[in-house]
Amino acid sequence: MEPAVIASGLAAVRKRRWCLWIVLIVYLPTMYVTQRITHSFSGSMPVFFAWFAVLLCVMFYSATARCPRCRNYYHMQGMALLYLRKCLHCQLPLNADKGDSF
Prior knowledge:
By secondary structure, the chain is mainly alpha-helical. It has helices spanning 3-38, 41-63; strands spanning 76-77, 80-81. The protein has one domain. It has 2 helices and 2 strands; from the N terminus they run H-H-E-E. Strand 1 (76-77) and strand 2 (80-81) form a beta hairpin. The protein is elongated, with a radius of gyration of 17 Å. The termini are close together. Keywords: Membrane, Transmembrane, Transmembrane helix. The chain crosses the membrane at residues 18-35, 41-61.
């Protein structure tokens, strides 16, 4: 397999992982601001459910990233969703395109 294909595939996997991290990091500041504005738990629940819906969508988006080498899902094996730094099928490291070997 060509290194350019693997590099672009791994870049897509990394981009999807960053989307997930951003959604996870946004949670605390969003809930803090919502609590300061609404001053109630029930008033912040719609914001929580909206954030949770976005989280589910982004998790689906990141979980369906395909490994550029084996074409299986990078983070899923069966029903297990594991965000490891290697493909769960062929063990291709997430930063393999940054080094000399594949």
